[in-house]
TrEMBL record:
Bilayer topology annotation: Multi-pass membrane protein
The organism's place on the tree of life at top rank: Bacteria
Protein name stated in the entry: NADH-quinone oxidoreductase subunit J
The UniProt record lists the keyword Metal-binding: no
Phylogenetic lineage: Bacteria, Pseudomonadati, Pseudomonadota, Alphaproteobacteria, Sphingomonadales
UniProt keyword terms in alphabetical order: Cell membrane, Membrane, NAD, Quinone, Transmembrane, Transmembrane helix
PANTHER family per record: NADH-UBIQUINONE OXIDOREDUCTASE CHAIN 6
Catalytic activity as recorded in UniProt: a quinone + NADH + 5 H(+)(in) = a quinol + NAD(+) + 4 H(+)(out)
Function: NDH-1 shuttles electrons from NADH, via FMN and iron-sulfur (Fe-S) centers, to quinones in the respiratory chain. Couples the redox reaction to proton translocation (for every two electrons transferred, four hydrogen ions are translocated across the cytoplasmic membrane), and thus conserves the redox energy in a proton gradient.
Length: 203
């Protein structure tokens, strides 16, 4: 009974926070609602026994991606009125895209249910005494090792490409000379003076 109550609670919060993510007028509030949606989605994953995915949602998506979005949105000087100006223009395309994705999901679920395979054989065979994280790690580092390494290489190339594209040489910037700073003597940096009353200090 408590599992059912928890499921409906988490599901309702996910739907509500996802809706508010889209409808919020302030992008900062949208990111905060997105973080709440990730937390509740992690709760749903725990209910179905997928604790590894729940941990990824909290650590990776909430702890890195969503917080990064929040910092970027807060630091950038974005004209929100200009961004909202094209909402009506792209609304028909957005509705069409939502309908296409919904049709694909319905078709995929129908094909999965009509596959003629019983429910037990659809689930990956995992011994009950093996934890979920250990089973996933065994598959990733044995059967899917090259695919996992390829994904890491793709992410590395994307990271290097982003750094190369955003790196630019700026003029008029004085670089820091660490060697000169370390070799500087105290007497070159400090000057003891004894000014008279009301005279002040000459710079």
């Amino acid at each position: 009974m408590i599992q059912t109550i928890a499921f409906y609670l988490f599901a309702a919060l996910v739907v509500a926070s996802g809706t508010l993510t889209i409808l919020a007028r302030n992008p900062v509030h949208s990111v905060l609602w997105l973080i709440l949606a990730f937390f509740n989605a992690a709760g749903l994953m725990i209910l179905v026994g997928a604790e590894f995915i729940a941990m990824l949602l909290v650590i990776v998506y909430v702890g890195a991606v969503a917080v990064l979005f929040l910092f970027v949105v807060m630091m950038l000087d974005i004209d929100f009125a200009e961004l909202r100006a094209g909402f009506a223009q792209y609304l028909p395309f957005g509705i069409l895209l939502v309908l296409v994705l919904a049709a694909e999901m319905i078709f995929a679920i129908g094909a999965w249910k009509a596959g003629g395979i019983d429910m037990g054989s659809r689930i990956a065979p995992t011994p009950s005494e093996v934890p979920n994280i250990e089973a996933i790690g065994t598959l990733i580092y044995t059967r899917y090792l090259y695919i996992f390494e390829g994904a890491g290489l793709i992410l590395l190339v994307a990271l290097v490409g982003a750094i190369v594209l955003t790196h630019r040489t700026r003029g008029g910037v004085k670089a820091q000379n660490v060697t000169a700073q370390n070799m500087r003597r105290p007497e070159d940096a400090i000057r003891n003076v004894k000014p008279a009353v009301g005279q002040g200090v000459e710079l």
